[in-house]
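In keeping with the milestone schedule agreed at the kick-off meeting, the structural modelling team has produced records for the first pair of proteins. Each record is given below as a sequence line and a structure-token line. The laboratory manager (R.T.) confirmed that both were archived under the project's standard naming scheme.
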Amino acid sequence: MLELKGIAVSNGIAIATAYCIIEPDLSFEKSSIQDTDKEKVRLRNAIVNAKVELEEIRNQAKTKLGDEKAAIFQAHLLVLEDPEMLGMIESKIDEGINAESALDEISTMFIGMFETMNNDYMKERAADIRDVSKRLLAKLLNVEFPDYSHLNEEVIIIAEDLTPSMTAQLNKTYVKGFVTNIGGRTSHSAILARTMDIPAVVGTKTATNDILHGASVILDGSKGVIIVDASDEITATYQLAQQVYNDERKLLERYKESPSVSADGYHVEIAGNIGKPADVEAVLSNGGDGVGLFRTEFLYMDREELPTEEEQFIAYKTVLEKMKEKPTVVRTLDIGGDKELSYLKMDKEMNPFLGHRAIRLCLDDTKMFRTQLRALLRASVYGNLKIMFPMIATLEEFRQAKELLEEERQNLLVSGVKVSHTIEIGMMVEIPSSAVIADKFAEEADFLSIGTNDLIQYTLAADRMNEKVSYLYQPYHPAILRLVKMVIEGAHKEGKWVGMCGEMAGDEVAIPILLALGLDEFSMSASSILHTRAQIAQLSKEQLAQHLDEIFKLKTANEVSKYVKLHLSSINKQQ
């Protein structure tokens, strides 16, 4: 038995076999062959097997993800069927070398040729050839090529890391959890795990080395513990804990139709964060009061070109219609930092989280930005749309973004396109400078939404993607609490509402403090909505507020946490 520890990022217990996503060993030796015909037959058999595998993956991707995302596998099939490339590989075999060496030489030549072209589409073909060549080489070497898109049994994914687009494609029917070597609580794969309600532990450092493919794994996403090949006794203990956890989740169902109100009658909104239209179902099934954050960047990921205005319009319209008149807060494109687009030329930066990202990128590439704004405005008549701009540092940025939005509104109206006249325009507060002058922003914004994931990162100068400094992700740090207080008070002074869409909004230690400060909207992973509503229902805002002076005298995050657990967790109307 082996026990590993990492960072707990998504609650729940999973018990299943390990599915290791690791680069297979595709090493081989160049050798001379005498029977070239036999070697070419071996190549053709490998091609047939690779095609069967790719066709299966394509068909499943088409069913689960749609034609667009399945198109990449169609492109891979076309590479396998390219007569010029395959003819050149066979010619190399005719020179007396083995199929592996012939494949490597020709694919390397094509990859190099495409990568040097000044054409983004052609450069993407280099990636296709590289992927297909790896799959074909694996077939020649009789090496298993990991691919979880066609899973048909329950597994726990073990990987170095999972990109946001990879995580978004996990099939909950079979993927019961995942473990990674790297990552932190606020990495986007972790956030998506919570959105999808999949238990996850990240930052283990050695999981891919310590856990063998097919091993029996217990994953405790609440405590950050992974147990490999556990005894029957330990397995039974976790099975019981898993049942208790599931039973507790079922008990929370009674809060699904309940109003989001404290024990002393203070109403708040408890909303859900989403990354794609399909995530709306989880928000609604958990009784969410709205969508507090639609991360639109996921519409741009896992594809080979920018989404068109029509594609975006359909996505936004779908979400708004499903939410009916419930508020839907859409964040405009937030690319950069840990989120990159392969087809978008972005310079390598020393500090990408502090660089050309989010609103800065959009204000620079106004053509791309205007496309998104038009799609949002066109969709606005189908529901209760609110738009917010990310990573605003200056009033000038906010004003410029609003001006572009207004220009596109007028262009659409002149063209006879209907646009809602009740769209609220707000901004993310995730940079300390914005929090300090929140009152000034509130004079020109309809609402403010606190993005604590980045606010904590920037305030404490700690890369939230770096597990070595994960201890500095401290939502209860006195500096963070003071900034949050500034934002809420500054906005309320101007009669504007304040939401929070960072992970802190669903943190059971932070919730009493946020309620006492008068936060209007709590937005979180859908799986946290019912638990948060149940917690707020037991708390009295008026009584909590009496503790704020003491809380703001505390000097460390640990002191704040201890105080809340000791004094605030049980304050309700019965006291």
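The second protein of the pair:
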Amino acid sequence: MIDVPRATPGPRRKWRPSLSLIVFVVLTSVLSIPLFSLFFLKIYQTQLIQQTEAELIAQSAALGAIFRREVETGVPQGVALGTRIPPVAQTSPAEPYQPIWPRLELENDDVLPPRPEARTPSAPADPAFTALGARMMPDLIATQNVTLAGFRLLDPNGVVIAGREEVGLSLAHLEEVAEALQGHFRGALRARVSKHDAPPLYSTSRGTGVRVFTAMPVIVRGQVAGVIYASRTPSNVFKYLYEQRGKVVLAILSMIVPTLLIGFLFHRTITEPMRELIERTNLIGKGDRDALRPLKRHGTSEFARLSESFLDMARRLNTRSSFISTFATHVSHELKSPLTSIQGAAELLRDDVDAPVMDDEDRRKFLDNIVADADRLAKISGRLRDLARAENPVALGAATLNGTIAGLRSAFASLDIRANGDLETPMRISEENAAIIFSNLADNAMRHKSSTLELSAKRLGNLLRVNIIDNGEGVSSNNRAQIFDSFFTTRRDSGGTGMGLAIVRAMLDAHGGAIRLIDSDQGTAFELTIPVADEPAGC
């Protein structure tokens, strides 16, 4: 049995959220803000309940003061009062203030069932308290008309002595009333029974269907003389929202529509161009040259620059790939000819050793051919090295034409070199690379039978323009478009490799310069543009 090796798992790819997911989360968060606001509305509803309780406390305290005064002045001393309050619970003379704070909360207190109906008392109210209730009835009605609260005055036994309804009935069985009859204030939340159906929006909060009840004891001569029983439905924010439901819907739409527009804007300006660029990247990687066209939409200006830079880089890499493929074909062709010649001559000389048929003159001819072809291979090798150096990033310098021309005159003594113009302007190129550029131009002039070479330089802003004119044979109209191509030469028989001008152009491109063939009355004329080196501070 052959063991099949298991594939080694690659490094686990780290999860990263997509841009679409981030945009979706942000927009969803924006839309959910109104939903979270419902929670704060519940808190606000509790605040409204406590505000209602505080108002009932204040109103009951005012009515209680009147009740107390009526008991002290209008109820005879012999009339029985209620529960006696222990001394510790009485107000201290040293501390006259005894505030009652609202404490009802929807979150903490259970909402009690609806208020039970009043019952028939075991004994009717004392006539003195019945008369007291009749005297205070106008005050209760006036107060209720303004505050919209419901009030009932209870005697010491919990029998209603004043109120719109239930006069003569007992409320002593209610929890809050029973505690007030023992001398303690008590508030309660009870489910509200309404004659009308509640709006659907009310179901989102418990505070919409409750009513606040307060039972405040009235203490006279240390005993409970009665109870102020008050109730009111708290203000409801949801009722207002329901009444203004048209505006609420409009407000919600005013949030949803801009959110959708923002999402659409993100999609058109960021997500869609990015997805298209990723798709183009995959197609370019597979060799699809049609993918090098501009994007359908660029979105933002930054993304437009990014996509244009990327596609421009892809075009340059594609051009570079095509150049390398073509260049490799040319190199193979240029090397094949001398190698074939050398191989053929060497085989003939080897065969002549076994059976000599050639004389010394023939042997020397074959050997001369081998030397000539080997010399051509050496020249091609050197030119290839120069071209590779020109294609790679180079170290910058500050060469001048004067220094470069001095080297040319010593290397090409038979060539009359003349120069004029801004010869001391520093060029952003090293002296060695400047020598390679101008040496190839001078060599090209000599190979085309030139005797003079004229250079004129002029600075134009950050560039130095150099015109080079020779008096040689010139360039025919058929060859003008090919002179900068690698291995193109019309002097192959005299040792030309066809790489001189290609090296010049590649070297200038690497330094941010350029070269072009210009019209001339005689010979050949080139125009070079070379960046000027930055001058030192203080010059």
